[in-house]
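Quick review question:
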């Protein structure tokens, strides 16, 4: 059965994460909600859910799909399906499970910044083998302000904001953007030049930093994606919850 991918913008595709999931034998059912695709009514025919990013507010009730997605994410989590939310998806997932979101008090975070793994994050299976502190890509105006009840904080940003969390063992939210391609940052700059100017950042300098960060970022995020493919969204022959990635034979 496929992993359902919910996309909300042409600028926030599943990208490199999708490629690695497919490389590991997964089938993806990509629904482009901003283009009018529907959210399935039933959960019986999917193996997991990924909710991607987008430029809209996580409280924008004018989005025709938003309320349906909140209910869908809550149902998926309640049925113990693996769920991963990235950026906007992270915020929607938090809302769906009873958490709260709000605009970043310090203003938008655009570009590259450090995340710090918490003690729980250092022991988590998706972050196994990753540095306790590393630079990653960001592009967000909103954030999770209050985690859902019983959720576990896995990583924080440079001003102490929520960057990664989980609920139980199969539901994860990532505020940062591990999935981007090398040209994604330029696309975001082109799409929102005024936003970059408003926070006092220079587009050329940001792209130079992107080129500098890319090799390390690509290596670290690919490691995370492989853990997603084999541990968060395991095929039937893979062991869930052991923290060990078994040998895969194709």
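Suggested answer, residue by residue:
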């Amino acid at each position: 059965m496929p992993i359902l991918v919910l996309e909300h913008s042409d600028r926030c595709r599943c990208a490199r994460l999708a490629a690695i999931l497919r490389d590991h034998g997964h089938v993806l059912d990509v629904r482009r909600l901003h283009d009018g695709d529907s959210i399935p009514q039933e959960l019986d025919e999917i193996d997991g859910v990924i909710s991607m990013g987008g430029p809209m507010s996580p409280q924008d009730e004018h989005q025709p799909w938003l309320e349906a997605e909140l209910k869908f994410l809550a149902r998926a989590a309640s049925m113990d399906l693996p769920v991963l939310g990235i950026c906007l998806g992270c915020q929607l997932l938090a809302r769906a499970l009873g958490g709260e979101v709000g605009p970043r008090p310090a203003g938008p975070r655009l570009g590259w910044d450090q995340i710090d793994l918490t003690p729980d994050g250092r022991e988590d299976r998706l972050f196994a083998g990753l540095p306790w502190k590393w630079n990653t890509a960001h592009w967000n105006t909103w954030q999770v302000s209050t985690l859902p009840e019983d959720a576990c904080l896995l990583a924080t940003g440079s001003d102490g904001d929520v960057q990664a969390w989980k609920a139980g063992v199969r539901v994860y939210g990532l505020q940062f953007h591990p999935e981007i391609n090398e040209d994604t940052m330029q696309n975001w700059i082109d799409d929102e030049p005024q936003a970059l100017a408003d926070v006092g950042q220079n587009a050329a300098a940001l792209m130079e930093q992107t080129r500098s960060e890319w090799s390390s970022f690509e290596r670290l995020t690919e490691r995370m994606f492989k853990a997603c493919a084999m541990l968060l969204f395991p095929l039937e022959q893979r062991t869930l919850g052991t923290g060990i990635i078994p040998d895969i034979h194709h």
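Why it works: Confidence is low (pLDDT under 50) at residues 237-250. The chain has seven helices and eleven strands.
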